[in-house]
């Protein structure tokens, strides 16, 4: 293991210390060391947006705490869920009197702990509603969408939810539009190399040299196909075929697209990926309204990428274009 760390057990806490020292004007701790919120939280009269998840995925989840995005985050160990107490601390800290939306990925530990946090918050008089990111088409077939993992497509949901809350909408409306956005987001990725959790000290899964795994999850969950590394055009074709068949998208649709690097992929390769993606969508009669290209949800030093599509309408387009910023995100 070659990493710029001290003791592996201190990885998350020292990372948080560095982030908070670097961005003291924008982020602060709430009542728990692993509960991080915007410095101005709670914002009176605004629906609070609370998220959370395991470390190792920056900018997800903490990277989307900022203006026009989420208001707070519970931070777990690497690839591990935060506790219910940590998410409860975030929920309390971002409640501006109009309720709180819990927005996180569809993973068992997160669902269990954040569900308990929501119950505890409700007992304290804080209204909570929940939206899950569950965009990974490789993780469950059509008809079983509730079993799907949340991956990079959750970026779209942070943007939509944060913008809607900033406009002053109530919790029901923020929940409704974010749920609608979630229903039209589809993602799929490819992994080219493994990653190493610091506490483990060795790769947590294997992708042999010269191999790839299409559909592998961001924690190394099994994908849909492993085989020899193919040219990127063939990889993009396989992913696009799966995405377009799943919603299904139709000729005449407009989409925002996300080409996301998983942590060790040069941005040049992401633009090569986008080149083929744009060709394929044009051939299908689908218009790209806005591309988002870079690292939006990583898996430590995993090599590979994911593609996400969100089918747009006028309201979603307006919310995606609304102002937003965090220490990790500044839209172009």
Short summary:
The chain is an alpha/beta fold and 332 residues long. The chain folds into 2 domains: 8-183, Rossmann fold, CATH 3.40.50.10440; 185-320, Hypothetical Protein Tm841, Chain: A,domain 3. The protein has helices at residues 11-22, 84-94, 108-123, 154-166, 171-183, 232-246, 267-283, 314-320, and strands spanning 27-29, 35-38, 48-55, 72-78, 100-105, 128-133, 185-191, 211-214, 225-228, 254-261, 287-294, 304-311.
Give a description of the structure.
- With 332 residues, the protein is of the alpha/beta class.
- The protein has 2 domains: 8-183, Rossmann fold (3-Layer(aba) Sandwich), CATH 3.40.50; 185-320, 2-Layer Sandwich (Hypothetical Protein Tm841, Chain: A,domain 3), CATH 3.30.1180.
- Helices cover 31% and strands 22% of the residues.
- It contains 8 helices and 12 strands.
- Strand 1 and strand 2 (35-38) form a beta hairpin.
- The radius of gyration is 19 Å and the shape is globular.
- The two termini are 35 Å apart.
- The model has no long low-confidence stretch (mean pLDDT 97).
């Amino acid at each position: 293991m070659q990493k710029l760390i001290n003791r592996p057990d201190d990885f998350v806490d020292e990372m948080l210390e560095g982030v908070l020292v670097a961005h003291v004007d924008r982020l602060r701790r709430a009542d728990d060391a692993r509960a991080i919120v915007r410095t101005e939280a709670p914002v009176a009269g605004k629906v609070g947006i609370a998220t959370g998840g395991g470390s190792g995925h920056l900018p997800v989840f903490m990277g989307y705490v900022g203006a026009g995005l989420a208001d707070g985050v519970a931070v777990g160990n690497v690839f591990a869920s935060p506790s219910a107490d940590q998410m409860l601390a975030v929920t309390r800290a971002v409640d501006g009197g109009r309720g709180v939306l819990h927005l996180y990925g569809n993973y068992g530990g997160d669902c269990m702990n954040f569900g308990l946090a929501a119950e505890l918050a409700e007992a304290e008089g804080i209204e909570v509603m929940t939206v899950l990111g569950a965009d990974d088409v490789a993780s469950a077939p059509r008809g079983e969408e509730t079993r799907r993992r949340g991956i990079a497509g959750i970026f779209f949901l942070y943007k939509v939810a944060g913008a809607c809350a900033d406009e002053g909408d109530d919790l029901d409306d923020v929940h409704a539009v974010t749920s609608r956005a979630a229903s039209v987001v589809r993602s799929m990725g490819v992994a080219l190399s493994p990653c190493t959790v610091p506490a483990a000290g060795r790769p947590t899964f294997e992708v042999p040299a010269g191999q790839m795994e299409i559909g592998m999850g961001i924690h190394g969950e099994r994908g849909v196909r492993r085989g020899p590394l193919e040219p990127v055009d063939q990889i993009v074709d396989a992913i696009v075929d799966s995405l377009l068949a799943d919603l299904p998208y139709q000729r005449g649709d407009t989409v925002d697209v996300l080409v996301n690097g998983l942590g060790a992929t040069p941005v040049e390769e992401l633009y090569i990926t986008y080149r083929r993606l744009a060709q394929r969508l044009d051939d299908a009669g689908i218009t790209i309204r806005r591309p988002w290209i870079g690292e939006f949800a990583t898996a430590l030093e995993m090599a590979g990428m994911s593609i996400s599509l969100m089918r747009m309408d006028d309201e979603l387009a307006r919310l995606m274009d609304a102002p937003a910023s965090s220490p990790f995100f500044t839209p172009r």
